[in-house]
Amino acid sequence: MTKNITNPTKSLKIPQFIIISCKICAFISTKLVTSYAAKLFTTPIKHKVPKRELEMDIKSIQNKIYIPKIDKSVVTYKYGESDRKILLVHGWSGRGTQLFKIADELLKLGYSTISFDAPAHGKSKGKTTIMSDFIASILEIEKQYGPFEVAIGHSLGGMSVLNAIKDGLQVNKAVIIGSGDIVQDILDDFTAKLRLKQEISERLRNLFEEKYQVKMDDFSAYKAAQKIQIPVLVIHDKDDPEVPVKAGIHIHEQLKNGILYITEGLGHRKILGNQNVIKKILEFI
């Protein structure tokens, strides 16, 4: 297990004005607060590219590509010149350069990486998005940039990678880091952070299922894992405040060819830059 003397395990706090807004909406009507929660759930926060990611941002060849299935466009990043390509998929409110430390080490090994800003993230346009947009983007990017030897996904990106493999993404291996698992658990956690009743979580699920004509549980990572034959490395931190470690353990249990690597003290994001984690990924690849 790896340890880190910093304390990255503090969960991101929901701003107080949003919690108050939810309470006001809930007081007015259940339908209103459900709609408001749905809007919050599907709206990522766009962060400015931090200095540590600027080198990858500057050195990447960036293009905008159209994803016909969802009628949206995404910005892609080709980092390196090798024909041996690895796909990198960021998580919610992330960016295509977020896995830069992993990308840098892959370049040293003779790979190039392809990553992207998911819809409504980074330099890609839009205000709202859902996981199916991530999956559709991955599958279209494979058509235009593939084949990929490996796919690496963080958080929602991990769930999306597993679902994309289930839906036809052809890779030899996959790595998922801090991946979510059961969609209902994610909805429950989200509504709890908003200090809303459990009933709203169930209403949220019903709203999304009616709007998108899908069963939300079909996107749960463990279900995709059950159908995957290739080797998958599951990395999760014991102290992850955003996605409980039980998610990674449960996903691993469903895989036919999985390896589980549990870290300690790295939280949800610092895990991406930890040298022991990167070493484990490189050894796996």
Secondary-structure blueprint of this entry?
Layout lengths: L15 H13 L1 H12 L12 H6 L1 E7 L4 E8 L5 E5 L10 H9 L3 E6 L13 H15 L4 E5 L1 H11 L6 E5 L5 H11 L4 H15 L8 H5 L6 E6 L7 H10 L3 E6 L11 H10 L1
Parallel strand pairs: 3-4, 3-5, 5-6, 6-7, 7-8
Antiparallel strand pairs: 1-2, 2-4
Pfam families: Abhydrolase_1 (PF00561), Abhydrolase_4 (PF08386)
Protein name: Alpha/beta hydrolase
Organism: Flavobacterium pectinovorum
Describe this structure in words.
- GO terms for molecular function: hydrolase activity.
- It comes from Flavobacterium pectinovorum.
- The protein has 285 residues and is of the alpha/beta class.
- It has two domains: 12-41 and 183-216, no CATH class; 47-182 and 220-284, Alpha/Beta hydrolase fold, catalytic domain (Rossmann fold, 3-Layer(aba) Sandwich).
- 41% of the residues lie in helices and 17% in strands.
- It has helices at 16-28, 30-41, 54-59, 100-108, 131-145, 156-166, 183-193, 198-212, 221-225, 245-254, 275-284; strands at 61-67, 72-79, 85-89, 112-117, 150-154, 173-177, 232-237, 258-263.
- Strands 1-2-4-3-5-6-7-8 form an eight-stranded mixed sheet, with helices on both faces.
- Helix 5 (131-145) packs across helix 6 (156-166).
Instruction: State the helicity in percent bands.
Output: 40-55%
The CATH class of the largest domain turns out to be: Alpha Beta
Tell me the number of structural domains. Answer: 2
The CATH fourth-level homologous superfamily of the largest domain: Alpha/Beta hydrolase fold, catalytic domain
String of helices and strands: HHHEEEHEHEHEHHHEHEH
Class derived from helix and strand content: alpha/beta
Beta-strand level of the residues, as a percent range? Answer: 15-25%
Gyration radius (Cα, Å) is 18 Å
Principal-axes geometry comes out as globular
The number of E-state strands comes to: 8
> Under CATH, the topology of the largest domain is which?
Rossmann fold
Distance between the termini: 20 Å
- Largest sheet, spatial ordering of strands: 1-2-4-3-5-6-7-8
CATH architecture title of the largest domain: 3-Layer(aba) Sandwich
Question: How large is the count of helical segments?
Answer: 11
